[in-house]
């Protein structure tokens, strides 16, 4: 009886250990072609919906790049940015830093099409990554394969949103990227990738135009003709907050012109201009400005690495990207 009791106890321990092994968060192994069997037309469906949207609005690539970046930098690339707030929880999308993130409806449209084709197979997190890839290509950027197999997160809190600021120094931005496992080189490349077709509202740079750091004068590191142009755009109406392109030359084209612009002191945001002036990053900026192919190839490596940021097994395949499953 005693031996039988001991054996029974050991069996219980083994079962508990086995259960824990399967419930502890595990890093997901992402792979290219993850949906080849479960939803073979998934990537084509996503591409077609993005193409249709791009025909109407050429700014979609910038919006999706921003969404992808803002999602990955909080809880990893788990589509937590898509979850709507409730009376009990303010979600990430309602944090101040995410106020300019858009194209949630486009993600909804893609999800609806995928659910018709293969219900509960494709994660919202993978939709963001794949849609961003397709949008970059439509804007003239590189074409690349995206490893997939992400799961959708179960948590989204506005209080957790802590993104690199528009006025950060290079060192401050580097610390933010380093905390996500990304190096200085990847930081310079990803900022260029997001800003080459991005825009900024006046409230993010207006202090550079008139009274920079309490000097009573514009930021001397900004080209004075650009200062005059932006003063005319932003004006003095506190209720107006227009936007301008971060690359004033090839604004809708995904290329390396952003780096040429900031080398000419035409960076709109302070962090952009800092990249060209700080010894930590200035040489990288010069190299990227000189070779568009190098920029494209470097961007692919950097965004794939960013897209792999995870915090364990995120959880589920959402039926609706705006809410967790119940």
TrEMBL record:
Record field: catalytic activity: 2 a phenolic donor + H2O2 = 2 a phenolic radical donor + 2 H2O
Top-rank lineage group of the source organism: Eukaryota
Enzyme Commission (EC) number: 1.11.1.7
Iron is among the record's keywords: yes
Cellular localization per UniProt: Secreted
Protein name as annotated: Peroxidase
Organism per entry: Spinacia oleracea
Gene name of the record: LOC110792623
Keywords linked to the UniProt accession: Calcium, Disulfide bond, Heme, Hydrogen peroxide, Iron, Metal-binding, Oxidoreductase, Peroxidase, Secreted
Keyword rRNA processing recorded: no
Cofactor: how bound: Binds 1 heme b (iron(II)-protoporphyrin IX) group per subunit. Binds 2 calcium ions per subunit.
Entry's family note: Belongs to the peroxidase family. Classical plant (class III) peroxidase subfamily.
Function of the protein: Removal of H(2)O(2), oxidation of toxic reductants, biosynthesis and degradation of lignin, suberization, auxin catabolism, response to environmental stresses such as wounding, pathogen attack and oxidative stress. These functions might be dependent on each isozyme/isoform in each plant tissue.
Positions of the Plant heme peroxidase family profile domain: 29-325
Cofactor: heme b; Ca(2+)
Chief localisation class: secreted
PANTHER family reported in the protein's UniProt record: PEROXIDASE, PTHR31517
Family annotation (InterPro entries): Haem_peroxidase (IPR002016), Haem_peroxidase_sf (IPR010255), Peroxidase_pln (IPR000823), Secretory_peroxidase (IPR033905)
